[in-house]
Design a protein that fits this description.
Distance between the termini: 35 Å
Shape: globular
Number of strands: 5
Helix content: 40-55%
Strand order of the largest sheet: 4-1-3-2-5
Number of helices: 5
Length: 160
């Protein structure tokens, strides 16, 4: 596993940072499994968690909501010396933020039995945000896999 220092930039890392800058995030998030898990199973579990949260917070019509009225995220994986975990940014509508914290975050344990999470408001200053973007793009796995709630179109949710 290659980890990049915050001062080392590659074209792909710069592109990932730009994507994070352009995402209208309300919070930063880390989802950790604390167990051996492969990337396919991990992203499947994150997708299941997201579907349950969206259904619980917005009921069955969640797929008809505009993107700004729903929960979206961009996550980048990291492994290295630790078990696979994901760092990223998430947008939670302000109207649902308190409920998200009460329901969605504890619900993560249903998908990751030993799992933990970290959820904080988006850092305020541009310098603090840049530090976060550098941190979450440091792992070489980030160059290989990007997981986002936006990878599935609403029609895919209806079929499940």
């Amino acid at each position: 596993m290659t980890c990049y220092h915050s001062t080392v930039n590659t074209p792909l890392r710069n592109s990932l940072k730009q994507m994070l800058r352009e995402f209208d995030a309300s919070h930063i998030i880390t989802l950790a499994f604390h167990e051996q898990i492969n990337i396919s199973k991990a992203t499947w579990k994150i997708g299941g968690w997201h579907r349950q949260v969206m259904t619980r917070l917005f009921r069955r019509s969640f797929y008809d909501r505009s993107r700004n009225e729903s929960i979206e995220f961009l996550l980048l994986p990291e492994a290295g010396g630790a078990n696979l975990h994901f760092h990223g940014v998430i947008r939670v509508p302000e109207t649902h933020s308190a409920y998200f914290e009460r329901y969605a975050l504890p619900r993560w344990r249903h998908f990751a039995k030993k799992g933990t999470h970290d959820f904080q408001p988006m850092r305020k200053s541009p310098e603090e945000r840049e530090e976060w973007y550098s941190y979450i793009t440091k792992g070489s796995l980030a160059a290989e896999v990007l997981h986002s709630s936006m990878l599935l179109e609403p029609e895919a949710y209806r079929a499940q």
